[in-house]
Write a structure and sequence with these properties.
By secondary structure, this protein is an all-alpha fold. The chain is built from 17 helices and no strands. It folds into two domains: 191 residues, no CATH class; 203 residues, I/LWEQ domain, CATH 1.20.1410.
Amino acid sequence: MSAEYRERQARLTTTRRVSERVTPLELFFDLVFVLALTQCTSLMASEPTWEGLAKGLLVLGVLWWSWVGYAWLTSVVDPEEGAVRLVMFGATAALLVAALCVPDVFGDDALVFACAYGVVRFSQIALFVLASRDDPALRRSVLGLAGGTGLGVGLLLVASATDGWLQGAIWVLALVLDLGEPYLFGAEGWSLEHPSHFAERHGLIIIIALGESIVAIGVGAGHVVDAGVVAAAILGVAVAAAFWWLYFDVVAYLAERNLSELPPGRERNERARDVYSYIHFPMVAGIVVVALGMKKTLSDVGGELDVMIASALLGGAALYLLALVAHRYRNVHSVNNHRLVAGVLLVALIPVATQVPALAIVAALGGVLWGLIVLEGRRYAGSRQRVRQELASETGE
């Protein structure tokens, strides 16, 4: 074995992650996901029907799972070391191409999307293979992931040659099989040595989704900024701020601490998979769907919403709240009844939303969310203060 080969091999084995800090390259990769979210909203807005909504959520699910793969990858591999950095740049470019294809992903750009998506996924597999060279358990999990990834990408390639309901059915099958792969191959072999980093990545993606909802407000407002648009914009920011509060005030930090307290191994991996990889998806999807509703609302604040857009606006917020309920239950095995009732109330308001001006519905949505925050603030004032003090002492703030 030549000295040059040994040096190259040693350099590649130094790519295991050693820091909890989210790196600038990870943030750079996440910024491309902003475009992906925006494109999904645009896809649904261009086809404001139930079918268009389903298409947008399917694409969002596929793109989400590709992002999740890199969140797990960078919990093992340092993305800014040597060749890994170059592969990450290549995956970023491929994700950008996939995002650009989203508006016509079920038409002429279906094949290009599938190919670009394949590059994103198999770049992740290649880096995982590198990271698992001296870890047989991780290698077995990676090989299982490679099989599931190959099947998912292959189905999308097949779907690109079809159209209509058959194409949609193949997309559903590809997404379901890809999402189910972690259960089929177990969670024992994965390495999650930096749970705080993993939790922070998902917190940042929530912020990115909220940022996309703000962008949707700007796009929906158009060129005329009258009193109605100003009011709707303020209310839209109030809704986004409520989403932020409901997650980041306490929930995100408690989940991170609970994950960190678990010993490395299967239990920690399964908790991370369920709370972050799975449950965070309906949270992000809820924010994106609400962004669709806000975009359409801003285009005519005085008009009435049709049932699909009303369902997007109120149902998306309900989905976000119910995901938070599931988030709490998976972490501490208790149900937040306040958020559950608020979610049900928002769904019940959908028929009313088609009969009153759009601006009134946005105001009602903001009222429900901020009413929930005030109620919880009073109901759990003591425990909230205690938790935040404990968190501050743990972080030295």
